[in-house]
Amino acid sequence: MSQPHPFDAVVLAGGRATRLGGLDKAALGSPGRTLLERAVAAATGAERLVVVGLRDAARAPADAVLVHEEPPFGGPVSGLAAALRAIPASAPTTLVLACDLVRPAEAVAVLRAGTTPGADGWIAVDDDGRRQPLLACYRSAPLRAAVDALDEVDGASLRRLTAPLDLVEVPVPSALCADVDTPEAAGRLASGGRTWTCSNPRGRRDPA
């Protein structure tokens, strides 16, 4: 079954990128193929597109809503909460993507193919069984409820946010879950390398 429509999309582009020396991840890549542009293309068809934490507003698509988490660098849950606040009335589902995914369009296609009715959402799981909460499609109402149930979103973990949700795990090859999280990965991206692995051994928690 394909992803239910209509849907909103949230691209998380914030974070300090300390492991990359503070580089702007959204700008990495080649012209027309930056990481941000890849993520935006993967969200094609969204009713509303919200980009969180973008350093250079000039890089944003014309139809995107730009927001920043408060306080700055509050983490992905804080960024997601800011995005949901920017959408007064959500579409039935919300696609959530980190902006540093290397092959997001392919990953989203696999995720969409694995959706089934009756769940709170669908979350990518790599070849090693690691959940990827920033490569997932959530039903908007339970996602909002999970955010609202948190005492504090600043610094909150994605694991805690998603714990109460009934999520269908969709197998997605690790190569499609791969991100740019190290100087070596940035070098492969610049050279057009095609061999990728997930850099976070415990699954994605922070797009920094």
Automatic annotation (TrEMBL):
UniProt keyword annotation of Transmembrane present: no
Keywords, in A-Z order: Cytoplasm, GTP-binding, Magnesium, Metal-binding, Molybdenum cofactor biosynthesis, Nucleotide-binding, Nucleotidyltransferase, Transferase
Residues covered by the MobA-like NTP transferase domain: 9-163
Region described as Disordered: 189-208
Entries under InterPro entries matching the protein: MobA-like_NTP_Trfase, Molybde_CF_guanTrfase, Nucleotide-diphossugar_trans
Gene Ontology biological-process entries: Mo-molybdopterin cofactor biosynthetic process
Gene Ontology terms for molecular function: GTP binding; metal ion binding; nucleotidyltransferase activity
Pfam families in the cross-refs: NTP_transf_3
PANTHER family: MOLYBDENUM COFACTOR GUANYLYLTRANSFERASE
Protein's name according to its UniProt entry: Molybdenum cofactor guanylyltransferase
Taxonomic source organism: Curtobacterium luteum
